[in-house]
Amino acid sequence: MASSRFTRHPAPTGVRIGAPLVVGALLLLAWHAVVSTHTVPLILLPTPGSVWSRLVHDIVHGELLARTATTIWEAVLGCIVATVFALPVGYLVARVRLAEAAISPYLAASQAIPAVALAPLLVIWVGYGLTPIVLLCSLIVFFPLLLSTVLGLRSIDHEVVEAAELDGASGWRMIRYIEAPLSRAALLSGVRNGFTLSVTGAVVGEFVMGGTGLGLVVSMQSASADTTGLFSTLIVLCVLAMVIYLGLIAVERFTDPYRVPRAAHPVPLETAPDLRLVAATQAHQSHTSAQKELVA
What we know:
It is a single chain. By secondary structure, the protein is an all-alpha fold. It has 12 helices and no strands. About 75% of the residues lie in helices and about 0% in strands. It is globular.
């Protein structure tokens, strides 16, 4: 087929921005159409206009932004704690077979425990406030980040690792100059997915363990059957998750040391550069430079 003769490029920026906007507009139209039929009472499904007015009011006159900042802070702390523990454990599982055999079953079993069941235990052990919420967020993020670490390390070409070992790379140097750069995409993908999960963990934690973020807002609106307020707060949570997700994608893309600039025209496969060779060459050059610095 003709399409197989060319490398696959990401969609243009206009498409990546415009396509979600089109989908969002279609969802709004469908929402408005359902409300206009009056088949669903407004107390159960408010109009898009009333939700928008409530959202603007809560942002301008309420404390919605301050509570959103609190939830973000809890999610960030949870991601940091999870990263500190998930990266070394993931490295151990990926590189030591005995560790994988001993740890993997328990890691898989831990995912069967819902976050709502863990929250009361954390309250009993730690108490209320910021600390148990951060711990809950870190527990939710830990497993996806660990899996992405293992996947990233195992996806490294063995030939690249063997070449680095022949050059004398081992231990911390191997991690810094070979394994970390080549597994970077998978690690950032795990951080990206974990951050969005961490926001969910922060909201769930505030339901059970107290807090001053968006979880408290949702809890009060639910108790008072404030459907319009619930919709506006849920929209804030959705937008927050999308902004975090897209922002981390942008960071991942523009900080990639092996990123090849997109050509103006499609490049035939027979003339396209071998990205694995490019990565291996750059990693080898980086390691050689480090050796020269150490010798000097």
